[in-house]
Amino acid sequence: MLIGFASCFSQWHTEPEIADYLELAGHKVWRYHYPNMDHQKFIGNAEKFDLVITSLPQMFPAGFWESVKARGPKLIAWYFDWIQGYAQKERQYIPALRPFDLKI
């Protein structure tokens, strides 16, 4: 399975380890480091992906995830640090989740 993983891949985040474990399980993971990723390149590669994972759906421009989903991959939003009870955050997060097939 080819996975497009759009998130922060720094030493302070768990995403590098998660991607490593996905690769140990036999999947191929293309890592796209936010905020330095090329959005158009990601959309252009989306038809190659079986699955797309992100922990930052709310950080991408409006329509980005709809454009990715239109190319065929399943979308997973995985919040590693979900913050409940903060109305501003919820207003930012919830609309971005609409195109996703699975929200964790």
What does this structure look like?
The protein is globular, with a radius of gyration of 13 Å. Helix content is 33%, strand content 21%. A 5-stranded parallel β-sheet has the order 2-1-3-4-5, with helices on one face. The relative contact order is 0.19. It contains 4 helices and 5 strands. The chain has helices at 15-24, 39-45, 64-70, 87-96; strands spanning 2-7, 28-33, 51-54, 74-77, 102-103.
Concise overview:
This protein has 104 residues and is an alpha/beta fold.
Helix content: 25-40%
Major beta sheet, specifics? 5 strands, parallel
Q: From the helix content, strand content and strand pairing, which structural class follows?
A: alpha/beta
Radius of gyration, taken over Cα atoms and rounded to an integer in Å = 13 Å
Report how far apart the termini are. 20 Å
Residue-averaged pLDDT: 90
Number of helices: 4
Strand order of the largest sheet: 2-1-3-4-5
Strand content: 15-25%
The best one-word shape is: globular
State the main characteristics.
globular; 104 residues; alpha/beta
SSE arrangement:
Layout: E1 2-7, H1 15-24, E2 28-33, H2 39-45, E3 51-54, H3 64-70, E4 74-77, H4 87-96, E5 102-103
Parallel strand pairs: 1-2, 1-3, 3-4, 4-5
